[in-house]
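Q: What would this chain look like folded?
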Amino acid sequence: MKRESEVVLLVGFMGAGKTTVGRELARVLNWSFYDLDARIEARTGKTVPQVFADQGEPTFRKLEAQSLSELFTALEDEPAVIALGGGAFAQEPIRQIVRDHSASVVYLDVGLEEALRRCASAPGYRPLLSNRDQVSLLYEERLPFYRTADREVRTDGKTAVDVAQEIAATLQLSPRDQEVT
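A: My prediction, written as structure tokens:
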């Protein structure tokens, strides 16, 4: 019998591991995986930094909300793991979409120093990662929103496999059997 909610949303600051953990969690559970930023890039034909540069953050945030709403509609009863962008859950329209759908929200908690270390390996890709003071302020601004998630899992010093297994255990999720369609 299917549980009511078989959608897990991963939220957290840039560098928390949302995409990496999301892929691993989906693999462990044999669920589908969706990265909201990747869907926006496919939709616009531009990278996230290009959308920020060409159209600004407000347009990007509207695209996030539209893309998430469309994704929930397309999922129907499909079990899925969805990685949201770092700033998505700090936006009221996104939180409203999440409230309107049955999903478990997991905050991947990463310390600021660890997030900066992880992000340093992808220079130029993080549109809002321009200077340390701004990043620190952004981190502090977003924390209260992240902390409204259903569950919180610390990612510092853990592998993606460890975090995915912790999420599956905490939410009592079981892998689905291969379905013949």
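DSSP finds seven helices and five strands in the chain.
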